[in-house]
Design goal:
The protein is built from 2 helices and no strands. It has 84 residues and is mainly α. Helix 1 runs antiparallel to helix 2.
């Protein structure tokens, strides 16, 4: 079970860091304002729009990896053990 925890933690850490970096670049208007979850600027070029899309993908990848490796994989193993 430790390997599933390590996989989930590694993916969550990496994807979370990428989300924080992109959020800091694009959705933090200033130090005294809302940080990391501010409004997405409307005048973005193609790279900015791709970065916002990538930011959302990293967020959901981190959440889904944690749920998959910390909840679903152990539950499937317990279910298989209970069946045999």
């Amino acid at each position: 079970m430790a390997d599933e925890f390590a996989k989930g933690l590694g993916i969550a850490t990496t994807a979370g860091l990428a989300w924080m970096v992109l959020s800091g670049w694009y959705t933090t208007p200033g130090f005294e304002d809302t940080q990391l979850i501010g409004e997405v600027p409307g005048n973005l070029d193609m790279y900015g729009s791709f970065a916002i899309l990538l930011r959302e993908a990293f967020f959901w990848f981190a959440i889904s990896a944690m749920v998959f490796f910390w909840v679903l994989v152990p539950a499937m193993r317990k279910f298989q053990q209970a069946r045999t």
